Amino acid sequence: MEADDSLKKLLYNLEKLLLQPDLRKSAPDVADLLADEFIEFGSSGRIFDKQQIIENLQNETLTRRSITKFNTSVLAAGVVLVTYCVVRYNTSGEQPVYSLRSSIWKLVNDQWKIVFHQGTLTRES
User: What parts of the sequence cross the membrane (predicted)?
Assistant: First the structure.
């Protein structure tokens, strides 16, 4: 079952926020959106925990990203799977990079937090 429109919009905005360079460089802001048990299967094939993601984002090259094909699926009360595509635009004029993304968001103490994220490189969407 898809999330209602207000929840879908909220989760879309949170995912979009996580793609913003200013937020990605802010360790406290990133930490606030990730659950303590957060795990990511990165597009590199590596597995990251919350602390590793926060540290890696501090050294990330700033790039612009956009979201397309955003969908939600309620897995249980207070647990939502979101899936979408991301286009990463490189500043050096290289071709854009496309990826499929999925996140599991969980309502924790009245705040939505990501418990799982996966990025998979793909061809143009």
Answer: none
Question: 10-35 burial by CB neighbour count: b if 16+ within 10 A, else e?
Answer: ebbebbeebbeeeebeeeeebeebbb
How many residues are there in the chain?
125
* Digit-coded pLDDT (tens) for 24-37: 999 999 999 999 99
- DSSP secondary structure letters along 78-122: TEEEEEEEEEEE-TTSPPPEEEEEEEEEEEETTEEEEEEEEEEEE
Reported CATH class of domain 5-122:
alpha beta
Partnered with residue 74 across adjacent β-strands are 80
Q: What is the pTM of this model?
A: 0.92
Q: Which amino acid makes up residue 97?
A: V
Domain boundaries along the sequence of the chain: 5-122
